[in-house]
Write a structure and sequence with these properties.
Number of domains: 1
Structural class: alpha+beta
Number of helices: 6
Distance between the termini: 46 Å
Radius of gyration: 19 Å
Strand order of the largest sheet: 3-5-4-6-2-7
Helix content: 25-40%
Length: about 230
């Protein structure tokens, strides 16, 4: 099924509830075509995502990786994510979607899923589930999210936090494609992609014979030390 994605929209969490015409969650429901649920503990084995940690290692061990600098940057982020999640757990809920397939798919949180591969003690994850109303009966045991106020309460964000959403349209199999919000707890581990690319170039310059394995992600790296390499 083809559908258009609406561009990234920014919303500020306020004390007063949003009106229906400006509430981002209401907007994502497309007049009853879609629905949004909250699962506080969905098992990680029910979530489909690619690439895996091993896929990322295989990519990094290629002779030429710089045809895809964005993917290289995600390697730096993943190394930082693993270390950070060990310290404070997963801060932001995933955004999953369900379109009738056996497993859930994911648009927000793939790197967190890869980090969890290296943290076997984490088996369940807090997740929003966006889907079409024709699948709603499969999730009737879960709380349904109907407005932005409910959404922000689950995210446990302070008043004034900035949220960003990318919406699908009414003909899509789910309503929310992607979301993000500013968080002091994760700011240090979510640097820009240009910075991540820069420090990885410095790291590889000083470690030209490194072989990437899943275990490589288990050891924190002082990425700032490679800023000027």
């Amino acid at each position: 099924m083809k559908y258009w994605l609406n561009g990234i929209k920014t919303y500020t969490q306020t004390i007063l509830p949003y009106l229906a015409d400006v509430d981002p969650i209401v907007k994502s429901l497309h007049n009853g075509e879609h629905c949004l649920f909250w699962d506080p503990g969905i098992h990680k084995n029910r979530i489909h995502y690619k690439p895996t940690v091993q896929d990322q290692c295989d990519f990094m061990n290629l002779k030429d990786i710089w045809f895809d600098p964005y993917r290289v940057a995600t390697i730096v982020k993943l190394n930082m994510f693993v270390a950070d999640i060990k310290l404070q757990g997963i801060v932001k809920p995933l955004m999953l979607y369900y379109d009738g397939e056996q497993k859930f798919s994911i648009n927000t949180g793939e790197n967190r899923m890869r980090a969890v591969e290296r943290l076997p003690e984490i088996t369940v994850l807090e997740s929003f589930i966006s889907t079409h109303t024709k699948h709603a009966d499969q999730f009737k045991h879960l709380p349904q999210i109907e407005n932005f106020e409910q959404f922000t309460e689950i995210c446990r964000t302070p008043v004034g936090s900035q949220f960003m959403f990318t919406f699908t349209d009414k003909d899509a199999p789910y309503g929310i494609f992607w979301y993000e919000y500013n968080s002091e707890r994760t700011r240090a581990v979510t640097p820009g992609y240009e910075w991540c690319e820069k420090v990885m170039r410095g790291y590889l310059k000083h470690n030209p014979h490194v072989t990437f394995t899943p275990e490589w992600f288990d050891k924190p790296i002082d990425w700032k030390s490679y800023e000027s390499s």
